[in-house]
Amino acid sequence: MYTPTTLGYAILGLLFKSKTGYQVRKIFETTPLGEFSSSPGSIYPALNRLLSENLITKEINSTNNKNEFVITKRGISIVKDWCNRPLTLDDVKNKFGEVMLKFVLMEQLSDRDTINLFLFSLKENLSVYKAELDNYLSNNRTDLNLHSRLALQQGIEVCNANYNWALNTLNKYILN
Amino acid sequence: MYTPTTLGYAILGLLFKSKTGYQVRKIFETTPLGEFSSSPGSIYPALNRLLSENLITKEINSTNNKNEFVITKRGISIVKDWCNRPLTLDDVKNKFGEVMLKFVLMEQLSDRDTINLFLFSLKENLSVYKAELDNYLSNNRTDLNLHSRLALQQGIEVCNANYNWALNTLNKYILN
DNA sequence: CCCCCCATGTAACATGTTACATGATTGA
DNA sequence: TCAATCATGTAACATGTTACATGGGGGG
User: Fold this and answer.
1) B136–A32 CB contact, under 8 Å
2) Cβ(A9)–Cβ(A105) under 8 Å?
3) Could you report the per-residue pLDDT of A37-92, keeping only the tens digit for each?
4) A64-68, B50-54, B77-81, B142-146 — which is least confidently predicted?
5) A16 interface with B at CB cutoff 8 Å
6) What CA–CA distance (Å, rounded) separates A149 from A175?
7) CA dihedral B23, A153, A94, A76 (to 10 degrees)
8) Across the interface, which of B33, B133, B153 has its CB nearest the CB of A151?
9) Among A81, A166, B155, B157, fewest CB within 10 Å belongs to which?
10) How far is B34 from B29, CA to CA, in rounded Å?
């Protein structure tokens, strides 16, 4: 069965409101949300893949006569499944961009409880990750050279920042 | 002219001390430094590319009779050039992993002044990036939906964490 | 009239992922 | 002796990058 790439999911997210391929490209090119490719060589093939899998449709906008893409029901369901898949430690370690993309997409797809759960799980996983990094640093302090230790410190601080963000965001949600 | 991939540079960094391919794999697999692939399908082809470009050599360790790789002079020079290339805003926005890898590699390749300059430039670029994100958030506060704003906030906080890290690290360096 | 932006594509290419495959060594 | 780990590789595959290519429309 077909699975979109991260870029594919990002595009699907944009196509909750219909857009031309060019508009999609410009969004990736000019906004800070979505650090994706934006080159025609990646966007148009990606759109065609989504099209051939019936996750989006291409239609002519009657007012301006341009070809626009929109997400299909099937597309929505695929995105939803992706977002609701339980977060893993690996997601948090190596695919934080995907995690944040899911969080953005969830707003239009999931109810409060699901979002709460997502944030809670994110917080927990970040806590585990942070503990792992702390442990690694104290167990290897003597073996690591200066810059490696400093780089590890940077990782820990980013982890903390993300943990605090998740905690604060969760509190906002709980307080309605 | 040939340019290594990020994985290639990471491997070159490890081969300042000679290692077998398997040892390289295990480092990527088990340590938090270097969030790289570690699968044989990526490591061994990468090693062979570096070998055919004479950036590393393969030699039999006389004591344990195993094939080990070491970086060559040419390899060192290539890594050094890569590290000393001026940091760009794009590096800081989209390739922070590479930036940190350079920082780690610099320890064995660059003098104090160069490292200071690197950290200073990193700090400056992070400052520009942060300003961009702040600006984008205030200019689009009404257009963005809740989760997009929160995600942007997360980006800003990571940016801040990195800025503070760079600042603190720079101070450590200046104070010797 | 010319340049820039809109708009869409394709072709070559390198790389990484996944999965498969093999054989040696070592400790229980 | 049996399983796990050491150790190295290859083949198919999807994707993204870079570069090239085309054509229309609008403004200076």
Assistant:
1) yes
2) yes
3) 899 999 999 999 999 999 999 998 877 778 999 999 999 999 999 999 999 999 99
4) A64-68
5) no
6) 39
7) 180
8) B33
9) A81
10) 9
CB contact under 8 A, B32 and A152: yes
User: Mind listing the pLDDT tens digit for each residue in A131-175?
Assistant: 999 999 999 999 999 999 999 999 999 999 999 999 999 999 887
The fraction of chain A above a pLDDT of 90, given in percent, is 89
Per DSSP bridges, beta strands B67-71 and A67-71 are unpaired
Rounded to whole angstroms, how far apart are CA atoms A11 and A27? 10
Whether the pLDDT of residue B176 is over 70: the answer is no
Q: Which of residues 82-141 of A touch B (CB under 8 A)?
A: 93-94, 100, 103-104, 106-107, 132-133, 136
Instruction: State the DSSP H helix or E strand holding residue A56, giving kind and residue range, or none if neither.
Output: strand A56-60
CA-to-C1' distance for B22 and C27, Å? 20
Tokens representing B102?
Answer: 């350079």
